[in-house]
Amino acid sequence: MSFNLRRAFILMSVLISSVAYAAYDPADIKAVYIYRISNFIHWNSESEMANIEFCIVGNDKIASTLKKITLDKTVRNLPLSVTPFYREQCDILFVDAQSGLSLDSVKPHTVVISDSQSISAQGGTIELATLEGKVKPKIYMANIGAYSISSSLLRIAIIEDGEKI
Questions:
Q1: Fewer CB within 10 A of the terminal residue: the chain, N end or C end?
Q2: Is it the case that residue 162 has pLDDT exceeding 90?
Q3: What does the alpha-carbon distance between residue 78 and residue 45 come to, in Å, rounded to a whole number?
Q4: pTM of this prediction exceeds 0.70
């Protein structure tokens, strides 16, 4: 294959993958990330858990998509449920950047995920950052609570190692 033809093929592949990625709604992509992240979280009290509850605050589209994705699915044999508001039983809490929810009462057991750049300062653990048009998890290690995060997730994430605020 000639050099120019090879370059054209590579460029076309990159453009096709970019177009395919752009075809998805950002809320759908975030819902998939939230579900996938649940596979890489291990709670200290997991043996006592009856299910994994996702709470989605401030974004009905993410809540709706996540309900569809998690229907009849389990993570380590724990059934999944989605609630469109915050409650103390939340295992994974997604807080939309526009929600204004205070994280003061969130339990250390709850993994807090957001698309807000200021989530770390509020005690959140994972930011779904948008970089160059793509969503990428950013993990704030100092804010990890009563759970651990698998090294498989840490390998693909941006790691922030700052002191807890």
A1: N
A2: no
A3: 13
A4: yes
